[in-house]
Structures are given as C-alpha cells and as structure tokens.
Amino acid sequence: MARFLEKVSNLWKPQTRHKFTCSNESELVTLSFGEMQVTLHYRDAFDIAAIIRTHAKQAKLFSGDKSTYIHGNGIMSDAEENAKRMAPTHF
After folding, report:
1. What is the pLDDT of residues 10-25, one digit of tens each?
2. In the chain, helix, strand, coil percent, each to 5?
3. Which end of the chain is more exposed for a tag (fewer CB within 10 A), N or C?
C-alpha cells in the first residue's frame, strides 16, 4: 500500500482537481488515475478511502474553507433486477 501512495503522490499536483475512475469486479476494486491503474482488494480500498477522507478533512480545515458539500454516489444499472433479487423470499 505504501508503494501505491508513493506513486499517487508523484502523479498529483497541488491546487489542481484531477479526474479518476473507479470500478469493481467481484471483490476487487480498480482505481484509475490518469494513465496509472491499481487493483486492490475491497478491504484495502476501504482503508485507503478512510485515510484519504481523514487527511482531506484536515487539509480543508487548514485552508480555512468552512463551506459544506453534500455528495453521494451509487450504482444505478439494473436497479429493478437488483431490487427483485434483494426482496425477501421467505414469506
């Protein structure tokens, strides 16, 4: 994980918003930052997400930004089929 963070830190430039993508296949999560692509187990992805969130909050406080930002995301494909599969069948 340390090598991953080292590569990412060399890729990113401060004060610039960067584009990235994220996808999953079974229990693996793939992150793409520009030309770089990293595949992780979902538990490692959760750990990295928590670390990034913590440091992002600290950086926001340090910058003096007191704004609020509400965001959300989800996977919307096959919503009807997923709802049918998730419905209880034991009744």
Report:
1. 555 566 677 888 899 9
2. 45, 20, 35
3. C
Query: Cα–Cα distance between 49 and 56 in angstroms, integer?
Result: 10
Q: Which residues contact 58 (CB under 8 A, 6 or more apart)?
A: none
What burial class does residue 29 get, using C-beta atoms within 10 Å of its C-beta: 0-12 exposed, 13-18 middle, 19+ buried?
buried
What tokens were used for 75? Answer: 């996977």
Amino acid letter for position 18: H
Summarised one tens digit per residue, pLDDT across range 33-57 is 888 899 999 999 999 999 999 999 9
> Helices (DSSP H) in 1-91: which residue ranges?
2-11, 42-63, 79-86
**Which pTM does this prediction carry?**
0.58
- At 47 the pLDDT is 95
User: Residue 1 and residue 56: Cα distance in Å, rounded?
Assistant: 18
